[in-house]
Write a structure and sequence with these properties.
Length: 269
Amino acid sequence: MQEEGEEAYEEIIKGKSKLNMDKKKSTLEMLRISDEVYTLLSRMTNLPYVECDPETYDDQIFIFFDEGEAKKAASRLLNEKAPVQAVKVEKRSFLVFYTALYPMGVNCIVVNEGTSERIAVQLEELIQRADPQKLPKGQIWVENPQFHLTAIYFVQEIRKNPGQEMTDELKALYEEMLAHFGRGKFLIAASKNQGVLLLKGEGWAGVSAAVHRFAGISEIQPGEEIAGDGSGSRKACGISAAGMQRCRSQSHGSECSAEISEQELSVRV
């Protein structure tokens, strides 16, 4: 009788596992072929709202197939002093949207949060990208997902209560953010011939951790721009930018000013 009970239990577990696998497969397919999906955009960063799951420690965003459910989730977060809004992502933008989650440091997508159809999928299960270690000779991979992710968490939290003093948690996030910045590589807009920084008023220069942030305001000119890292070293690369959007905020209680806006950072020069 005991053996029969164990076999029955194993069959139940196998059945649930198969149902979960089928549900995940169906969800992944819907994320690829739906006409549109809805995500939660943080009004603090103008980026997808990111949370760290307290159990799995996944850095996750939220996607819904139904606009009404997305708005309900936005309302719940607003009550928790996390201002977000539900925004539509059309099918033609799926590839750019999903791919852009990698340099943000996001590794998980939670689908239909707050409903009976909730399911979490790993980003790598949905879309895979080129291996940074297999770039053609002479090319470098310019991104800093650790810095970007930490900066997102920092800005989402500190802007909940403008004017608040830095808590121990915020101070830790800030120190972690600066550490990641020091280890990262960035694209810096420079003049075409002189190779000097293009200032954006008030002594600020645009810095980017991703090439696509120069799209629409740049032209490709080999060897005319600067790729730098937090240590001050720099190399020539193939982007020439006429200008760059800047967004800035003052970090409370600190001598350093930093702002994350998509993959951009503004630094004082």
